[in-house]
Amino acid sequence: MENSEQLTGPFGEALARGELIVQKCNSCSELIMYPKYRCPSCFGNDLDWHAVSGRGQLLTYTVLRFGAPSSFDVEPPYAIGIVRLEEGPQLTGRLHPGPDGTWDHYRCDEPVAFEPAEAAEVAQRPAAWFAAPQES
């Protein structure tokens, strides 16, 4: 069986290039997130990677203002949310703060879009980052 780096490596590599990808089952065309060894719909193992738009809907989010009790190695505050992509899959991602340094402009059930993090951040913690449209 493959190790976890072989399973998740392409996702992190795409994030480092500024792209968002999900798995796609070549047997039934199901889009899958998070990476798996087999398709949860048809149990096929002919899986590939597929670029997605990065646009989606913020289902829920939280702002963490205090550090974890163990060494999570992220300085608070930071925000994480669950995003349902236009293509169907949903995933947990980090949320970019607004120009004022807060996340007050985010609203559940509102649109967000993938906005890549810096390569150094992705190398340390490979997570998709999203931003809400800024009001003018």
Give structural notes.
InterPro entries: ChsH2_C, ChsH2_Znr, NA-bd_OB-fold, Thioester_dehydratase-like. Residues 49-102 form the ChsH2 C-terminal OB-fold domain. This is DUF35 domain-containing protein. The protein has 136 residues and is of the alpha+beta class. It folds into two domains: 4-51, no CATH class; 55-131, Beta Barrel (OB fold (Dihydrolipoamide Acetyltransferase, E2P)). The chain is 14% helix and 32% strand. It has two helices and eight strands. It has helices spanning 4-16, 119-124; strands spanning 21-25, 31-32, 47-51, 55-64, 78-85, 90-95, 111-114, 129-131. A five-stranded mixed beta barrel has the order 4-5-6-8-7. Strands 2-1-3 form a three-stranded antiparallel β-sheet, with helices on one face. The chain is globular, with a radius of gyration of 16 Å. The relative contact order is 0.19.
